[in-house]
Amino acid sequence: MEHYSMNLTLKIWKQKNAATRGAFETYQVKDISSEMSFLEMFDVLNEQLIHEGKDPIAFDHDCREGICGTCSMYINGRPHGPWQGTTTCQLHMRAFKDGDTIVVEPWRANAFPVIKDLVVDRSAFDRIIQAGGFISVNTGVSVDGNTIPVEKEKADKAFAAAACIGCGACVAACKNSSAMLFVSAKVAHLALLPQGNVERKGRVEGMVSQMDKEGFGACTFTEACEAVCPKEISVTNISRLNAEYAMAGLTTDKQHGS
Amino acid sequence: MKWSEFFTSSVGKKLVMSITGLSLILFLIVHVTVNACMWAKIFVPGDNGEVFNKAAHWLGQTLVPRVLEIGLFLFFIIHIVQGYVLEVKNRSYRSTGYAVKMGAKGSKWYRKSMGLLGTLIFLFLVVHIADFWIPSRFGGLNEVQYPDMPGRTYHELYGKMIEVFQNKWVVILYIVGCISLAWHLIHGFQSAFRTLGVSNKKYLALLNSTGIGFSIIVSLLFAMMPVSAYLGWVTL
Predict the structure, then answer these.
(1) Which domains are assigned to chain A?
(2) Residue of A nearest to B93 (CA)
(3) For chain B, is the Cβ count within 10 Å smaller at the N or the C terminus?
(4) Do B5 and A257 touch (CB under 8 A)?
(5) DSSP secondary structure of A217-254
(6) 8 Å CB contact of B102 and A108
(7) Averaged in consecutive runs of 10 residues, what is the pLDDT profile of chain B (236 residues)?
(8) In this structure, is the dihedral angle defined by the CA atoms of residues A72, A74, A76 and A80, taken in order, positive or negative?
(9) What ipTM was estimated for this complex?
């Protein structure tokens, strides 16, 4: 693709901290290369702001290669911007044209409070994982490979679910601020594998219970989550979560909470 | 997990919506079948409401449908109340909205509009119950007798229907109700099964097409009722 430069108008959400009200601020950036990534464009803007003695924009980023799930911008009305199956860090400026106005907002959900500007607190996801998104194993000598046979189709499905990077785009896109795609990916990933089978009932009960405590909404299958997921996690995982949950709820005989 | 926890969690509440919704879908099949008796003259020459009135009589006077009717009202109430509770609660999880909305970029409009569609159906339902169910239960309908059933009287529900559907505005309201029902069901039918846990893609595809077909056919048959009466395709 032909290289080109562009001048852009950026409307970016600025918010000092969770307690103060935020507002949009407008910035101009010049000579942005079409080969830059979206976050590199932000680096250019921040350098410019620092030179001008202004407060740079806080945003989350880490690996910048689309696998860590740290970046989280809601760009022009879509989590992670206009490209399908792409994280913000892998979005490149060739997605935009000279003279464009780009509106950037943080993830909006009460369960993801804004820490500063575009950075939101996603530790609710960590607490959901702690409530069951793991398998308990004794550490020690490592097991030989292939001692537990796994059906290829199931392994593929489990792997596709395990691709979830926990970025929270599903919550940001959902009209109900539901975390069901995230939780279902984690539940399905382990439920499909023999290693996850032992704790499957307690896992789904615990994770759904924690999800509700954190203040995420219920799923109404609008499928917005799947449309924006950078890892293209399928909503069929949510069906699987529902089945796992129903099976656990109907068959466990615990009288107390999980 | 206790039963109370099971049915009040976010997944459990959706299960309740799904089970009540699917039961209401079963009711629609019964309802639309009885309704279709209004066109009985296609098969029974000279019929002007006898088959319809007898079918309605059976439904209103037989024990099993009467018992099921209680359950039906209960499920309607649970579905409506729970639906509104979920809608309000789900909306409350995002206090600050987006400046630029996702709009049609994420999901189809009817998938996001179940509350609105449900409200339109609910408004229709109130008028519909006042038009037909209340008079047939609490009186206010003419009585007719048929020669093959001496000594037995039937509500003249057919006549009442023709009379009600002479009003243009009632016909329009019913059509709006039926269109809302179609869209509500197109999402609701398959969504209900996914809430019940159907994740097999073969079955999901089957349920999706069945749901679309069911929604369109049932809603169209319902809508044809006021239209037939208003345009004089069926008369007294």
Answers:
(1) 5-115 (3.10.20.30), 124-251 (1.10.1060.10)
(2) A110
(3) C
(4) yes
(5) B------HHHHH-TT---THHHHHHHHHHHHHHHH---
(6) no
(7) 90 96 96 92 85 89 90 96 96 95 87 95 94 84 84 87 93 96 97 96 96 97 94 86
(8) positive
(9) 0.90
